[in-house]
Amino acid sequence: DYSKKDHIEIGVVGGDGIGPFITKEAQRVLEFLLEDDIESNRVTIRNIDGLTIENRAACHRAIPDDVLAELKQCDVILKGPTTTPRKGDKWPNIESANVAMRKELDLFANLRPVKIPEEGVDWTFFRENTEGGYAVGSEGVNVNDDLAIDFTVTTQPGSERIIRAAFDYAQKSGKKKVTVVTKANVIKTTDGKFLDTAKEIAKEYPDVEMDDWYIDIMTAKLVDPKRRQQFKVVVLPNLYGDIITDEAAELQGGVGTAGSANIGKKHAMFEAIHGSAPRMVDEGRAQYADPSSIIKAAGMLLNYIGYTEQAEKLSKALQICSEFEKKVVLTGRSDGGTGDEFANYLMETLSRD
Amino acid sequence: DYSKKDHIEIGVVGGDGIGPFITKEAQRVLEFLLEDDIESNRVTIRNIDGLTIENRAACHRAIPDDVLAELKQCDVILKGPTTTPRKGDKWPNIESANVAMRKELDLFANLRPVKIPEEGVDWTFFRENTEGGYAVGSEGVNVNDDLAIDFTVTTQPGSERIIRAAFDYAQKSGKKKVTVVTKANVIKTTDGKFLDTAKEIAKEYPDVEMDDWYIDIMTAKLVDPKRRQQFKVVVLPNLYGDIITDEAAELQGGVGTAGSANIGKKHAMFEAIHGSAPRMVDEGRAQYADPSSIIKAAGMLLNYIGYTEQAEKLSKALQICSEFEKKVVLTGRSDGGTGDEFANYLMETLSRD
Ligand SMILES: CC(C)[C@H](C(=O)O)[C@@H](O)C(=O)O
Ligand SMILES: CC(C)[C@H](C(=O)O)[C@@H](O)C(=O)O
């Protein structure tokens, strides 16, 4: 419970590509909203440099040791997008900084809220964030040139904690319904365990309804405006969460519009779910990148550390500015305004009420 | 090449639930279109009974031995939906008949065409159909009560044959573009092999463009009318194919609207991609089930065995009747017409031109 803490350390990680540009704007907004408590030293905002692809490549680590040490000193982290090296491109084959951070800080719950207000859609996805095909040690083997094997890992405690988080939230938020998504008809052992665990936990929450669907039919249901309203809280193993939340964010208006919270027992990290868009930087258009997704993530961070009033204000101001955002900061188009102008406009709006 | 064959054996499998009802209509249409060649004994249509869930449960086999023997005698099979047992329901824990048939008959390529004519969308999905989490021996282990592991298997020959099929089709159809979908940034060994194999094969087809996307962003792209037109031929490992084709079918108008071809070197099986809808049977509404998806599958079958003219006629007639279908055979609603009436109307339309 952060409200009882004397001091809160917020780390801000710029990341790659457009990351430092949009993160800077989000930091300005945080500083604006937390001004008094920064003044009084209750809150410190610390810039953490060095999580760049150049640095990671140079030391051949997903997260350089000194950066990891700094991250571990923070209570909460706001993170810009990081470039994931791909086979065949110029970077060495190191793990995604994102995936590594989730594992190193044990950020087991990935929360992604998605809203389609005009349809009354208000989903909260609870993606398991450390297991499945992403688990430590699941790297797989090339048995020979002809045969490759990968592993999927699901643990009982790992399933339990994310499923319990989803049920707790469903109960407290009054949403009172949890949908479990697996492919337990085929991926029987691991997804079977996840689904069985959910069925057991559901018994402890008699006032929360539970249903379950397979991932294939779930992607179809989300496309259908008549059927998607039925979903409230959705809990999924890592890979399905990865897939479904991108689809859902697109339905909300684009993967660039969603924020994502990565939450563990000791740390929490907040980020935009879009990528680092290196092309925008190459083309000299980085200052036009839309910071609204990472600012939304900053709002989730504020909420998480107990600054709910500020989070609420920010959310309202973002709503007000979203028209402006659509018209002026046309994502990545240099005929619109810059991210800086957007943040200024947002802060003006914030000071008005 | 079926055009050179003296005799073609078509097996028709009713399956479960609404399966026998809709399959019967598709069989009538096949008999109507192949009348002369059935008369002359060039084509035989053979009914294969016994692939019902009751039977499979009784002998505790995904496919009873006698049924499998009969299936193996057919060149091509038209199959109604079969019920997949789920943990917790009344059936024993046997494998999906579908998945078993794909493996037993080595039907390695699952082809699913999806069209959104008003947008100019004309996708053909090539889903690998025997490997990944579906492979023989990938059943997984419960290491102990706390730890479950599943395996994902990708072979070089298995990847090669499906990717080659996709490139061949892209070249011959004039579509000239193949999109490869994986999650090779995380599922590095198996998906990495699939993607690497695709890159190698692409070199043999200099006139076919290739691009690749991760499965998460691909589900998002399909939702966006502005970005989905770029896709033509898409090749994917088994599980991603399962997920994406359901989403795509829904975009076309519902999972009930797509047919699916499962193709191997020796056999081929054609089916609707919707389920067996046991509830419709329980409620006495099975005769109202819409047979158009399995009739589309029958059209794919005709095409495959060289009756391209008949397939073309059928496709046009289905187009003409689709308005009727929407108005009268309201899928599963007993205020519409029956599947039988729809098939009659379709055959009337077929005889008219
Ligand atoms: C970059 C990638 C490894 C990552 C994931 O798969 O988790 C991303 O898609 C996400 O959803 O945060
Ligand atoms: C029933 C199920 C096992 C099957 C699959 O996952 O392949 C189905 O979803 C399909 O797409 O044919």
UniProtKB/TrEMBL annotation, chains A, B:
Belongs to the isocitrate and isopropylmalate dehydrogenases family. One of its GO terms (molecular function) is isocitrate dehydrogenase (NAD+) activity. Residues 9-346 form the Isopropylmalate dehydrogenase-like domain. Keywords: Oxidoreductase. The keyword Oxidoreductase applies. It comes from Pseudoramibacter porci. GO terms for biological process: isocitrate metabolic process; tricarboxylic acid cycle. The keyword Oxidoreductase applies. InterPro entries: IsoPropMal-DH-like_dom. This is Isocitrate/isopropylmalate dehydrogenase family protein. SUPFAM superfamilies: Isocitrate/Isopropylmalate dehydrogenase-like (SSF53659). It comes from the Bacteria.
